[in-house]
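Researcher: We're teaching a course module on how sequence relates to structure. For the next exercise, students receive a sequence and then see the predicted structure as tokens, so they can try to spot secondary structure elements on their own. Here is the exercise chain.
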Amino acid sequence: MSRIPKLTCRLLVNCALGVLLVIASVVSLKPLQTGRAFSETSTKQPNAAASSRVSQATTDSKQSPASISQSIDSAIDQGGLASARWGVSVISLTSGREVYGRNAGQLFIPASNMKIYTTGVALDLLGADYRWRTSAYAGTQPDATGTISGDLILYGRGAPDLVAQARKDSSDGSLTRLADDLYQRGIRQVRGDVIGDESYFRGETLGDGWPWTDLQWYFGAEASALSVNNNEVGLSILPPAKTDVLPLVSVNDGENYVSIQNSLTVVKPGEQMTIGIHRGLSDNKVRIWGEVPLGGGGFGARLSVQNPSLWAARLFLKALQDRGIKVQGTAQKRDARQPPNERFDPSAAIELAFVSSKPLSEIVKDTNKASINLYAELILRTLGRERGSLVSTPVPAGRERGDDGAGLEVIRLWLSRTGISTAGLALHDGSGLSRLNLVTPESISRLLVSLSKTAAGPVFRASLPISGRDGTLGGRLGKIGDRVLAKTGALTYTTSLSGYVTAAGGEVLAFSILCNDQTARGSATRVIDQMVSILAADPATKG
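Model: And here is the predicted structure for the students to work with:
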């Protein structure tokens, strides 16, 4: 009988303890639910400093706590790419306050968002009206018969938009116009060679960290001081009408500078097309193989041209001959890899004619709207050549500083002078094709803020693609209208978007969204556009 009360007491004590445990667990869970947007700023790399900055920025804003933070975190964490590494920085252009940050101080590969550094700093330091000059030089004046006794030098200074033949009614700098100017001056014969001189730039024509597999394509073109026709050719493949005829392969290169080996075969109608293309790393021999179905569609590709300065010399020689100027010699090239005493000195020669490029403002607009790597690389080298004296970084003995490296040092200096930290940043090219570039989202967003305060700010802003309207954003974010101006970026496993967005409340925000290591299936572009849409829809922020 005495055992029953003891058992009852023990049961009552156990029940009471159970109730207390349930109550304690409910209380402990509540703070985690309300604080999730602040404590989980990254599912992969928690950052207490970033979390506290987001919390403070949200508290200071006029909107409800965590509305933007929770929405953006949700877009990332539930967007199918939570395993990727995300970096986001959003800063108010008006107040300079941070609206949102996620791994904002961590290092990421920026892809083509690197062009923001290159074009923005160049506009500020070189000026929107800067133009490139391409000249024709001779060692002596032509004689009374219009004969140049020596070589004719085609001297490039990095003009991105030089073409072989300009469109009708166009004022673009072209080789045909240069030849015509020489003819108008009375030149009728050149007894020497036509030399394409690219020695204006020192250093490499290819970017540091460019994969060799990218070099045969137009986006991996060499950044020569004497570039022409974007240093690329277009290749097209058309199926034949009969099975006993090879598919037609053509290249828009009138000088046959690029040679084609056609190893294509024809297969039955309806079968799958397979195309292989390979251009040698040190030549312009292109081999094409694969299968083309009879009666099927065509195929096109854009290939880079190796050794573009020699190509320019050959195109110029043809332009001279077509205009009626005889040339006894051949097309040759010259670069900066000459002893200093053997390099061409324009100041000791006679400039017979020249053509000018479009202003930098228009070149930058083409660069950012269409994301042209070659233009960005030429702008970078021009920045180093023209403003390299601003920096005094020691050069190892026995080496000569390249203008690409000098340009990157100028960008670092500009960032430092505007109060943007360069600690840890790794800058290796001007276009973003390099996989060695490492920047922070915060450095990009603060760069955007700083650029907006310069005289070149409006020109830079006008160079960015507009949502739903033009450039690489022409097919994106159309529902937002034209309230997003931003530079896109994409590499394997990397997607980025950085620029300006005008929120519904009227405030302009500078933002940078970088996504790396996106190996999972899913669209990072879709997630990025969702985040930008969240920023654009915010009614609480006002200018």
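Model: If you want an answer key for the exercise: The mean pLDDT is 88. The chain is about 30% helix and 20% strand.
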